[in-house]
Design brief:
single chain, 177 residues, alpha+beta, eight-stranded antiparallel beta sheet, two-stranded antiparallel sheet, 5 helices
């Protein structure tokens, strides 16, 4: 695992400069730069401080389980041609045919967000009709833009924001509102 690269990815995802992260962690910008370039290694205590400032935990940071796919683009879509029924089905979420969901339509004004939803049983799916959104899922964020879809299980705190405004279809099963 490349610790420095992973810290830099988290910092950039949070929209922080090296100086901002250094200030929050009470470290120098030069030290953060050296850590990100793997020129030095932080102590466990310092690493814990950095990770806390980045909104994650040590266990999440070192969890090497494969990253689940949350956002899907046209390259991920699956097409099924049924010659008997003379139709074509476009699955915009792989394996979505096994899920039960209830659709709603959401319009996010610029700077808007959805209410944070606590972990619950179920699934969440969405399709961005216009604009772009940020999906906040636990301590991670994912970006989706017009024509892209997202899917996740609802077992972590989650909400959606948009800096520029967006219109999307959001499907929740079972409904949680």
């Amino acid at each position: 695992m490349n610790i420095g690269q992973k810290i830099k990815q988290l910092r950039v995802l949070k929209g922080l400069t090296q100086e901002e992260l250094a200030d929050r962690a009470e470290l120098s910008k030069g030290f953060i730069s050296q850590v990100e370039r793997n020129l030095t290694s932080p102590s466990i205590a310092t690493l814990m401080d950095i990770l806390q400032c980045l909104g994650t935990t040590v266990s999440d940071f070192f969890n090497d389980s494969p990253e689940e796919q949350i956002v899907f683009s046209q390259e991920d879509y699956f097409e099924k041609n049924d010659t008997d029924l003379q139709n074509t089905i476009h699955w915009i979420i792989p394996n979505a045919q096994k899920n039960q969901m209830e659709p709603i339509r959401i319009k996010l004004e610029p700077g808007g967000s959805t209410y944070p939803d606590n972990p619950h049983e179920g699934e969440e799916f969405g399709y961005v009709l216009s604009g772009s959104i940020t999906i906040h899922l636990g301590s991670k964020t994912y970006r989706a833009k017009k024509g892209e879809s997202f899917y996740f299980t609802a077992d972590r705190k989650h909400f959606i924001t948009s800096k520029t405004g967006a219109i999307l279809i959001w499907v929740s099963s079972p409904p949680s509102f």
